[in-house]
Amino acid sequence: MQIKLDTRPYAGLESEALVTYVFEEGDPVQGRVAEIDQATGGLLRRLANSGELTGKTLEFTLVHAPAGLKAARLLLVGAGKREQFNGATLRKIAGAALRHLKAKSVKQIAFLVRENDANEESAQVVAEGILAANFESDKYKTDKKNDKSVDGVALVGYSDAERAAGEKGLTRGRVIAEAQNFTRDLVNEPSNKLTPKILAEKAEAMAREAGLAVDILDEKKIAELKMGALLSVAQGSVEPPRVIVVTYTPPNPKPGAPIVALVGKAVTFDTGGISIKPADGMEKMKYDMAGGATMLGVMRALAALKAAVKVICVVPSTENMPGGKAQKPGDIQTAMSGKTIEVLNTDAEGRLILADAITYAKQLGATHLVDAATLTGAIVVALANINVGVFGSDQPWTDKLLASAKATGEKMWQMPLDEEYREFIKGAVADIQNIGSGKGGGAITGAMFIKEFAGDTPWIHLDIAGTAWNDDAKPWLAKGPTGVALRTLVHLVMAS
Ligand code: BES
Ligand code: ZN
Ligand code: ZN
Q: How far is the CA of 259 from the centre of ligand 1 (A)?
């Protein structure tokens, strides 16, 4: 889909729909909305008076053939209270407007920003909202006759003097949304179409196109490196594991700058292994590679945005299968770091593969670590599908990430990691065990396990098990993969 800036006066623009947004305040007909009211001979005032136009969050008011405008339709979207309005609201408004009109087979839209919003940030969030909203999970549908995707959006309300700022925001928004949709495409792939080998090939193709360095470790190399924790998960599958390493090196590295490692769990299917999962809903475990897909998407965006710091992305990928060769509860494994692990539950496999990936990222020179993983069902109990669970070993580094989450409108909530929780993973027969002993705090237990391998290197763990997949469509996003955490991580690296 095309999205471009058009600085011509909006009233005279021919489009299938002109969209703008209305605040919920004493008089919703103000500023640009009052301008449109004048052009349409008092139509909006009448709608406001009758109670049909209030500005309540995501209220839609659609007018056909509005007098005085060249557009075939006028769509007014409620923006809620003006004091609470921000980039995150505007992103949702743009996305929701697109999905509302797309359902009506509208192909071409003009999106008008309000009188104070003709700036770079607005252009960025509108592009992000619109491009993410246009994404559908219909790749494997052979009958495309219901395909309603929008062809083009014009961003309007910018003067010629504001054009440069608008273009800059649009470009950044496009890069970020396209990276997010790249991630969502990967997450959508079923496990028969996306094995660790295929994921590695797709990552390699992306890296080459983006101008990133890439190194794929195969099962032989993984064994040479003694990644015993990763191999223990992979041994149950006929599909060999891979470790995908993508590196971004800035043209002019800042002296003393951090080297950030982004580590993402990519279990292309998680049956649970011998500690097998129940059948009901198991199909969703194709999304157990969302952490890895997110990190690959972040790398793609960072290359396009020409980040100033070095970033190493490490994605351990495997299937978790039961079978004659699968590891069994009680098996003891030696991780790459040399630590021994008693695997009490083969379904707690994410932490095993992350352990070795983190050890490897440190060996490659990482000074700061972030991992993202669909790690635990327990994080869904704690935070539902609203917030990403954030765990951090270093508060300044964690605070930076939380600030980036705020700035990019992604909900994240910090969870505790007190030393007392270390007891939970203390091993009876090995150094550590991969699950706690039934004391609750499942998401924290998982994080404590990974922390063992991060050691003194500042580290953040994002548990995205509850947020990487939407079971229901939102007004601004299709149901299915969300691409959550990508915007935050791009922002974090760009701000480092
Ligand atoms: N991949 C799952 C976690 C998950 C759950 C992701 C729900 C997405 C939605 C993970 O590997 C897992 O199975 N975790 C276990 C850990 C337990 C055995 C300690 C869990 O959460 O039940
Ligand atoms: Zn599992
Ligand atoms: Zn898993």
A: 30
239, containing H or E segment: none
Q: Which class for 482: exposed (0-12), middle (13-18), buried (19 or more C-beta within 10 A)?
A: buried
Helix then strand then coil, % of the chain, to nearest 5 = 40, 20, 40
Average pLDDT, the chain: 97
Q: How many CB atoms lie within 10 A of CB 235?
A: 18
CA of 468 to the centre of ligand 1 (A): 13
pTM, whole model, 2 decimals? 0.98
pLDDT band at 29 (very low <50, low <70, confident <90, very high): very high
Residue nearest to atom 3 of ligand 1 (CA): 376
Looking from the CA of residue 272, the nearest atom of ligand 1 is 13
Distance, CA of 487 to CA of 405 (rounded, Å): 8
> How far from 471 is each of 280, 411, 466, 479, CA to CA, in Å?
15, 17, 10, 6
Confidence of residue 146 (pLDDT cuts 50, 70, 90): low
Cα 426 to Cα 432: distance, rounded to the nearest angstrom: 5
